[in-house]
Design brief:
single chain, Protein Transport Mog1p, Chain A, 2 domains, 6 helices, 25% strand
Length: 280
């Protein structure tokens, strides 16, 4: 198989071709300026073509589209994206669980204030549904109910540096918090346990935690269990939280994280997600 000539060879050949064209023009019978001009134009074209061939291609792939309000809403999962009998509800953005309200007991921690602050941030973020901090751009929320369990998804744009810091912080919580005590406004004690939770291998980065809160509600022993999955796609992220008084919702959270990531990637690619995900 013959090798293509190197760049210097192609340039030298182009120069010879240009010289031949100019010589031919000078020796023509009519000697008119139009013939010379034509030859010069051809020589110039040949030189330009040689330069283009010698220069490397440095183009980059198109950047993903910026997330818009409409795009954030389109990226949200639907009832068709998750199995079982989940029903979409209209007021998911107003959900609040009082089991998450409490002041962390600093005495539970070896490094006291720093670890206690991380765990307080976790409880507050779960309660206010801004675990990653306030979005820097468009955001949208949807939620589903099944019995006493809830499934919440938020899609939003963030500052990239702050988003990376939030993911790193979330990954540190199983060690930093482990198990601690929080006290509610009436003096009731709640035991909170934080462990690591798996997340499907999707998106550009991901992190998950499993949180359980044991205490009393209306005088009755109660345990709130939540599974949390966060997936970053570029400078955007989706956060899925699922669970309730009946236990965690690991499978539903995993499915929502996977389907939600695919929908977000589709939106950022400038396409519209299918209203009905493909089935096997």
């Amino acid at each position: 198989m013959s090798r293509r000539p190197t760049h210097p060879v192609r340039l030298f050949a182009s120069t010879l071709a240009a010289g031949a064209l100019l010589t031919t023009a000078a020796c023509s019978d009519d000697g008119g300026p139009s013939a010379a001009d034509t030859a010069a134009e051809r020589a110039g074209s040949a030189s330009a073509a040689a330069r283009e061939a010698a220069e490397p291609v440095t183009g980059t792939s198109p950047s993903p589209a910026a997330l818009t309000e409409a795009g954030a809403k389109a990226a949200l999962i639907t009832e068709g994206d998750i199995e079982d009998q989940w029903n979409q509800v209209p007021d998911a953005g107003k959900w609040r669980d009082t089991m998450l309200v409490g002041k962390v007991d600093v005495a539970d921690f070896l490094t006291a204030k720093s670890q206690a602050a991380d765990c307080q941030r976790l409880l507050d973020g779960l309660y206010t549904e801004d675990l990653l901090g306030k979005p820097s751009g468009p955001s949208a929320v949807t939620g589903f109910e099944q019995g006493e369990s809830r499934l919440l998804e938020q899609v939003a744009a963030y500052d990239r540096g702050k988003l990376d810091d939030a993911l790193k912080w979330l990954g540190s919580l199983p060690d930093a918090c482990d198990q601690f005590t929080a006290t509610d406004s009436s003096g009731g004690k709640r035991t909170v346990q934080v462990t690591e939770s798996s997340v499907p291998d999707v998106g550009d980065a991901r992190q998950g935690v499993h949180v359980s809160v044991r205490g009393t509600s209306a005088g009755t022993p109660t345990t709130l269990t939540l599974d949390v999955a966060v997936v970053r796609v570029g400078t955007d992220a989706l956060t899925v939280t699922g669970g309730g008084l009946s236990g965690g919702e690991t499978d539903a959270v995993h499915q929502a994280a996977q389907q939600g990531t695919e929908r977000l990637q589709t939106v950022l690619a400038g396409r519209t997600p299918s209203p009905h995900p493909p089935t096997d």
